[in-house]
Structures are given as C-alpha cells and as structure tokens.
Amino acid sequence: MREGEPSRTAFGAAALRAVHQEVDDPRIFTDPLARRILGPAPLPERSRERPRLRLFIAVRHRFAEDALAAAVARGTDQVVVLGAGLDTFAYRNPHPGTRVFEVDHPATAAWKREQLAEVGIEVPEDLTYVDVDFETDDLLERLVDGGLDATRPAFFLWLGVVPYLTHDAVVTTLSAIASIPGGEVVMDYVRPVAESEAVAHARRAELQATVTDLGEPFTGGLHTEELHALLRRLGFDEIEDIGRREIRSRYLGRPPGDEDGDAHVLRALRSR
Ligand SMILES: C[S@@+](CC[C@H](N)C(=O)[O-])C[C@H]1O[C@@H](n2cnc3c(N)ncnc32)[C@H](O)[C@@H]1O
After folding, report:
1. Model confidence at 220: pLDDT above 90
2. 88 CB under 6 A from ligand 1?
C-alpha cells in the first residue's frame, strides 16, 4: 500500500460488490449498503468488465457471512473484520448482541469513517475500530486493548487481504486467531499459478498488473496443502476449503467442472 494513503484495492472490491447487486443473476451476496457506501459518483467501468472476479468476491462474502451466522447460532458473540476496507457487515449486522471490531490500516480506516459520514451511514455503538498493520503490529494485543475477550470464541472475516501480505504476516495473524479458544476465520487466498496453466497464468498476470498499478501488488501465493498443514499445526481442527468446482456447484447450480481455480476461500476453526 502507498504510505499514508487509503487502500485503493478496497475501493475496487467495494465497487465489484456494488455492481454485483445490480447486474449478476443469480445474486449470490446481498448487501443493501454496497452501493450506498461508495457515494453517488458513477462506478469505474472496469467493475462491470470483471464477472469472474466479481463472482469470487460475492462468494467469499456469502460463504463468510453464512459461516458467521452458524458461529453465532453456536454462541459466538465477537466478530472481527480484518482489513475491513469498505466492508459493510458492521453497519447491517443482523446478529443482535454481537460485538464487532473493524481492523485496518489507519489511513484506510480514517478514509472509511469519512466516507460513512459523507453518505450518512450510521456507526453502531457496538462497533470498535482498531488500527493495525499486520506486518508490524501485535494484532491480539491491539484487539484486547480495544475490548476483545481473547478467552472466548471470536469469528474473524479476513477477506481480500491475504494475497497482499508477506508470509510472515499471514502466519503471525493465523497464530493470533488460533490462540483463541473457539477462534474461527474465513479467509481467501490465491494459489501460485504455473506458467503451464496458460489461461489462469494470463488471468493472474493481468490482475497482478492492475493491483500493482494501484500500488498494492500481490506478494505471492499459498499452496493449498501447505496452508492446511500450517493451519493444523497452529491448532485449527476443522478446515473447509472451496475452489472453483464448489463455487460452480454450490452457488451457481452448475456442474462442478474440472477447474480448481486459482482463488480459494477457506474456513478454519479451533474448536477445542
Ligand atoms: C482488497 S482490500 C479488501 C477490503 C475488504 N476486506 C473487502 O473485502 O472489500 C485490502 C484491505 O487490506 C488492508 N490491508 C492491506 N495490507 C494491510 C496491512 N499490512 N495491515 C492492515 N491492513 C492491511 C487494506 O487497508 C484494505 O482495507
């Protein structure tokens, strides 16, 4: 990210969620604030030109919020949105009695608060903002200072952030979540794509060029097996991971096909 500036990919992801509300059929993720939080200006034309990325973003939020609803039904009442960007969950939270923490880089968080005020979206009383740089700060310490009870279950949404972080920051953040009994996370990640996977490789190169232009290049990828092994080592005992096949069958009602896809979304729970 550019020093002292809000995240520009956060705007891009929010624009794709807003366009999803208007044009995609089926609509996989319903977010009545997705368009409003962006203000009245027209959305960039490129948000209309990326149906595959838009689908993936819609799926990751739907998957995450469905998993969150299940966690709340089991008694979890602490929710942490990591690298929140313009995510609107906290402002339309359907789970009374849950406490929400939004974690982000200070510059992005400040920009979001200005944006909320400008468009008249109310900040709920049960929401706490926590400024963190995943690369340098102690996430858990900051959250506990902000009021999180790290001895009780907490659900973390970590969407659209992992591909931008160093491996060390990913491991440190997952370790913090795994240190909480009943800690649960939904995160998305990209797999490294070999040159031999020509179509996926070209698609990734194009996306990498876009995010690099925005000053937020992807840092690499995570191999599914290595990531699952890491999660187990850290103490997560329940892992659910979906790629392109499950996205097609579960959310589009189509045959799964052969393609695993380069972007995955994953849920991991430390149940004991
Ligand atoms: C692509 S945006 C995703 C935002 C949001 N989660 C969404 O799905 O729309 C990436 C987010 O990660 C945050 N981020 C990136 N690197 C970070 C870091 N080192 N520490 C804290 N936040 C970071 C950015 O500020 C931004 O909000």
Report:
1. no
2. no
Residue 163's pLDDT band, with cuts at 50, 70 and 90, is very high
CA 161 / ligand 1 centre spacing (Å): 5
Tell me what pLDDT residue 93 has.
98
Instruction: Give distance in angstroms: CA of 271 to centre of ligand 1.
Output: 27
Are the C-beta atoms of 33 and 4 separated by less than 8 Å? no
User: In which domain, by residue range, is 199 found?
Assistant: 8-269
Using an 8 Å Cβ cutoff, are 106 and 137 in contact? Answer: no
Residue 208: inside a domain: yes
The answer to whether residue 207 sits within a structural domain is yes
Q: Is 194 helix (H, G, I), strand (E, B) or coil?
A: coil
This prediction has a pTM of 0.96
Cβ of residue 159 lying under 6 Å from some atom of ligand 1: yes
- Residue 255, in any domain of the structure: yes
Say if 3 falls within a structural domain. Answer: no
Q: How many domains in the chain?
A: 1
Q: Is the CB of 59 under 6 A from ligand 1?
A: no
Nearest one of 252, 198, 189, 254 to 222, comparing CA atoms: 189
Ligand 1 centre distance from Cα of residue 96 (Å): 26
| CB count in 10 Å sphere of residue 43 | 16
